[in-house]
Write a structure and sequence with these properties.
Blueprint: H1 8-11, H2 16-19, H3 33-42, E1 47-53, H4 79-89, E2 94-100, H5 107-110, H6 112-115, H7 119-136, E3 142-146, H8 168-178, E4 183-187, E5 199-202, E6 223-228, H9 245-257, E7 260-265, H10 276-292, E8 300-301, E9 310-315, E10 318-323, E11 330-335, H11 337-344, E12 349-352, E13 360-365, E14 372-377, E15 388-393
Parallel strand pairs: 1-2, 2-3, 3-4, 5-6, 6-7
Antiparallel strand pairs: 8-9, 9-10, 10-15, 11-14, 12-15, 13-14
């Protein structure tokens, strides 16, 4: 509503009693669950994660555990219920819930001395809300937790840090009991804990920490990287730095090439509508994905080492190269080890994924005796404006 991002309560030191007055005016009349779900499906997404409660403590669903919630605003509806129903009608996509493990509003988290509440009261509230989401909103694709960052404890005020244990073992057991197929991801910026089903990397690929928040230690779990379309998670009126469709295609391909899903954020405006700049990009990304999704869905990290110019995935003995740049008709990929063995295999062929046209392929000497250059010759008129995908197989 303020148009200054989802951390505005903290960054501008807005007292809880003042911030909560916004709820009296909250009325996102343009929210349409079917439009949100179709925007995600058209973009090629297979699951969507929606905020149930962020760090400011406002619940975006009809929880029985708090009166600070969306159904007691002028809007008076439960958007998570509507999204759950919309996803149930369209089986192409699963719905997951983001849950903040910290709460700047709840008295048992931030003001125990003044309120007389205990830490156990907050743990009961957190677990209770997750139970509501798992028990009352149909099939849940994932529970996406955020707000507990042990690696960054010294960077935040004391009220950011849990005053006791969040009892993850009990919480995870409850989630898995109520929703056996749900994926638990906790965005702790640290190696996953027992009971978690995936490891997340915020604005980074697995093993990287360019953003400065992630651990470079990777687990044996599946990976996910989360990214923004512009620079903000929550709506920021002055943030017009929207990534191009080509850049988003590169993010998706690089994530797949690192063996990770991409969770791509679109922060809606206060009226409940997705930003036109975001929907246009989601549509463009969907068009590219429909032509090249074979190299994304169900694929794993590829044999070819990634660079700024390419990434690769594979499905069994079928390999895919995503070519991001066009400097000349020839793209030269450094290959060694298994990738070099593949390039040397008798009968190996390369084609454009989108139309099956053959791609001329040859080997040249590399930088040293252990490497070669795989040369792919693709003229400009056959290149994809976002990312050209080459399929390599015997």
């Amino acid at each position: 509503m303020l148009g200054r991002g989802e951390w505005v309560m903290h960054t501008e030191n807005i007292p809880a009693h003042e911030y909560e007055q916004l709820a009296k005016r909250f009325n996102p009349t343009r929210f349409n669950a079917d439009e949100w779900v179709m925007a995600a499906i058209d973009a090629g997404m297979r699951y969507m994660v929606v905020t149930s409660r962020h760090h400011d403590g406002f619940s975006m669903f009809d929880t029985r555990l708090s009166n600070y919630k969306v159904t007691l605003t002028p809007f008076a509806r439960d958007p998570l219920r509507e999204l759950a129903d919309a996803c149930a009608r369209r089986r192409e996509i699963k719905l997951g819930f983001y849950v903040s493990t910290l709460d700047w509003h709840h008295p048992a988290y931030r003001n125990r001395k003044e309120s007389g509440q205990a830490w156990s009261d907050y743990v009961a509230f957190l677990h209770g809300q997750v139970r509501e989401l798992c028990a009352e909103y149909g099939e849940v694709g994932c529970i996406w937790l955020d707000g507990d960052w042990p690696r960054e404890a010294d960077l935040h005020p004391a009220h950011f840090r849990p005053a006791g244990k969040l009892e993850y073992e009990r919480l995870y057991a409850m989630i898995h009991s109520l929703q056996p197929s749900a994926v638990i991801l906790n965005n702790r910026h640290a190696k996953p804990l027992p009971g978690e089903d995936a490891q997340g990397f915020e604005r980074d690929l697995p093993g990287q920490n360019y953003f400065g928040q992630n651990t470079t230690e990777v687990s044996e779990l599946p990976f996910e990287t989360c990214q923004t379309i512009n620079d903000s998670w929550g709506y920021t009126a002055t943030d017009d730095n929207h990534k191009s469709p080509a850049r988003l295609a590169h993010l998706l391909a690089r994530a797949a090439g690192a063996g990770a899903n991409l969770l791509l954020n679109a922060g809606p405006a206060a009226d409940g509508a997705l930003l036109p700049a975001h929907t246009r990009r989601l549509q463009a990304l969907g068009n590219w994905t429909r032509a090249n999704g074979e190299a994304i869905y169900g694929a794993r990290a590829g044999l070819f080492s990634s660079s700024v110019e390419w990434a690769s995935t594979r499905k069994g003995d079928v390999h895919y190269l995503f070519l991001f740049t066009y400097d000349s008709d020839q793209t030269r990929v450094e290959v060694s080890g298994p990738a070099l063995e593949l390039a040397r295999s008798p009968g190996v062929q390369a084609t454009l994924l989108r139309d099956g046209q053959p791609v001329r392929m040859s080997l040249r000497d590399g930088r040293d005796t252990r490497t070669k250059q795989l040369v792919l010759t693709i003229p400009l008129e056959r290149r994809d404006p976002y990312a050209t995908v080459v399929k390599i197989s015997n």
